[in-house]
Write a structure and sequence with these properties.
About 40% of the residues lie in helices and about 25% in strands. It is an alpha/beta fold and about 230 residues long. The structure holds S-adenosyl-L-homocysteine. S-adenosyl-L-homocysteine binds next to helix 1 and helix 3.
Length: about 230
């Protein structure tokens, strides 16, 4: 087994897999943020006609939406049940995504410098060694290719919003979804990207207003954020 995987994380996502495409279920936040992150990526990549890899794709919310925009998408994950759900969903919609159960590190050896863009959303806070995942994502992108990460910042506000608020008060996510110690500051993520040969182009916050229930992209990177890099 690939060393950069926490079996407890895989079990957690496998147990919830059948809820993946329920827009008001356990993965509601991913459904709600998807149009925003999809536009963010499409604006920078021009998805139509591009080859894209989605690392830690789960049930395929982002992967399938990128395929709808005309990209040739490969989605990889190490949890088989979410991948099965993702494949079943393709049977319903007729969309095309190549879903594979393979670690990013292993695929990087098989297909180095292969993809126009690599997306890795809401995964880094679930892996034992984020630096290894980031290096693999960098290796999988073509030279000049675009690489995107999204994760959760580490500070008091992120703890209050992403753990206490989302899991305990608003119950938007199952308890235990996130471990505060694994959150990553934008400065730390940027340093890891630079070390992997990626040039950071943009960092954008993803905010949720619990009163209006509106998600938005903007300058506030205090809780969730997306980072865009180019492989130099
Ligand atoms: N990226 C998707 C899903 C995020 S949920 C989205 O944003 O919509 C996190 C996903 O990461 C789950 O599907 C889980 O199975 C997967 N995962 C956890 N550890 C992993 C690892 N080491 N390698 C690949 N995928 C992993």
């Amino acid at each position: 087994m690939n060393p950069n995987v926490d079996p407890a994380e895989i079990a957690k996502f496998s147990e919830l897999a059948h809820h993946w495409w329920n827009p008001s279920g356990d993965f509601k936040p991913l459904h709600d943020i998807n149009p925003l992150r999809l536009d963010y990526i499409d604006t920078r990549v021009g998805l139509n006609g591009k080859s894209v890899l989605d690392v830690g794709c789960g049930g395929g919310i982002l992967a399938e939406s990128m395929a709808v925009r005309g990209a040739a998408v490969t989605g990889i994950d190490l949890a088989e049940k979410p991948l099965m759900v993702a494949r079943l969903h393709l049977a319903e919609t007729g969309n095309q995504v190549d879903y594979r159960n393979v670690a990013a590190e292993d695929l990087a050896r098989e297909l180095p410098q292969h993809f126009d863009a690599v997306t890795c959303m809401e995964l880094l806070e679930h892996v034992p060694d984020p630096a290894s995942t980031i290096s693999a994502c960098a290796a999988l992108a073509k030279s000049g290719g675009q690489v995107f990460f999204s994760t959760i910042n580490r500070n008091l506000k992120a703890y209050l919003f992403a753990v206490v608020g989302a899991e305990y008060v608003l119950r938007m996510l199952p308890r235990g979804t996130h471990d505060y110690a694994k959150f990553i500051k934008p400065s730390e993520l940027a340093a890891l990207c630079r070390r992997a040969g990626l040039e950071v182009r943009n960092v954008t916050g993803m905010t949720y207003n619990p009163l209006t229930k509106i998600y938005a992209l903007g300058a506030d990177t205090g809780v969730n954020y997306i980072l865009h890099c180019v492989k130099v």
